[in-house]
Design a protein that fits this description.
mainly alpha, two-stranded antiparallel ribbon, 15 helices, 2 strands, globular, transmembrane
């Protein structure tokens, strides 16, 4: 049997894909190294003994509670993914939908989290749906996160929460308000298919290229309209709020165990704002931006640096890196289930 002969042109897409993967790995590794160096420098200036004494406050029970609350977040958002699938007319068993979502968290540290789009491939393969029909799910999922976090941050900025006065006066209030407005605006844009279709058409008129890509974009935008009916939108927001509030409660408990007496809403506001700030940087997993924002806000709230540093490190391990670890463990199982092909469209 003769083997097909590949031309140089056939090798170009593969070589570009390899280059992008290597680039992403190096970007992530470099960002992580810089973050570790920065945190180590702060820890050295603060005093290793003080930080070690803070870490000694946490036992196995406290660690289990933190990881359990993070797991609630992943499960709630996994159920939300299942709700979105149903809204798009795609039928998968709930355990498989949750498996796809959590396994996709293995790619949360890719630039812009674009690696999480692997869920679309799993969904399309498992259901036989065209990618155009599955594509809006990623946008809807991201919009659900933005809307839920914006609503939670808005609650933390309320007069009863005391975040504005407790953090540093008017500057954090203005930044928090702008963040809420921006997140809600982006989430609202994702819920308007006519806007997305107009953007796709305008992009084609502007460039005059990629007619097939823009046509697919328009079809995907039309199919996204099914995702924003009330019977889909309400549970999507509710599940997002439950998930992110669980992690915010974990952050509050962590600060309490480390001796920082900060109220629940203030702690939740700091956690949500830092998470959103990290996402806006576009860095893999928000690495660097989220940690810097969290440490700065904790310091502004009067938390000593020898408490703010370990609190930030533990919070990120218990949320971001715990998610990546579970995702990596479940990734092969999700790959196997996506090839099953027994599921169908509604």
């Amino acid at each position: 049997m003769t083997r097909p002969v590949l031309s140089a042109a056939d090798c170009v897409p593969a070589s570009r894909a390899v280059f992008r993967r290597r680039r992403d790995v190096w970007v992530l590794a470099g960002t992580a190294v810089l973050l570790v160096i920065g945190l180590a420098g702060l820890a050295r200036a603060t005093g290793w003994q003080e930080i070690g004494a803070q870490l000694a406050r946490l036992g196995p029970a406290e660690i289990a509670v933190l990881l359990g609350l993070s797991l609630i977040n992943y499960l709630a958002r996994g159920v939300r993914w299942h709700v979105l699938l149903g809204g798009a007319g795609l039928r998968l068993p709930l355990p498989i939908s949750v498996l796809h979502f959590i396994a996709g968290l293995a790619m949360a540290v890719t630039p812009g989290r674009v690696g999480e789009l692997v869920r679309l491939r799993w969904t399309a393969t498992a259901t036989g749906a065209p990618l155009d029909r599955a594509a809006p799910l990623a946008l809807a999922d991201r919009a659900g996160d933005l809307a839920a976090m914006a609503l939670l941050l808005a609650a933390c900025l309320g007069p009863a929460a005391g975040l504005a006065g407790g953090v540093a006066g008017g500057a954090p209030l203005a930044a928090g308000t702008a963040t809420v407005a921006g997140a809600l605006a982006l989430a609202g844009l994702a819920t308007r298919p006519e806007v997305l279709m107009a953007l796709a058409a305008a992009g084609y008129r502007l460039t005059g290229r990629g007619a097939r890509i823009f046509a697919r974009g328009r079809r995907a935008a039309r199919s996204a309209a099914r995702l924003w009916r009330p019977r889909v939108l309400v549970p999507v927001l509710a599940l997002g709020l439950v998930g992110w509030l669980a992690e915010a409660v974990g952050f509050h408990l962590l600060l309490h165990w480390l001796g920082a007496e900060i109220g629940l809403w203030q702690a939740a506001g700091i956690f949500v704002f830092a998470t959103l700030a990290g996402g806006l940087t576009g860095a893999p997993g928000g690495i660097g931006g989220a940690e810097a924002a969290m440490i700065a806000l904790l310091a502004a709230a009067g938390v000593p640096l020898d408490t703010a540093l370990p609190a930030t490190a533990i919070a990120r391990i218990a949320t971001l890196w715990f998610a990546v670890a579970i995702g990596v463990a479940l990734f092969p199982l999700a790959e196997a289930h996506s090839r099953d092909g027994r599921h169908a469209l509604v």
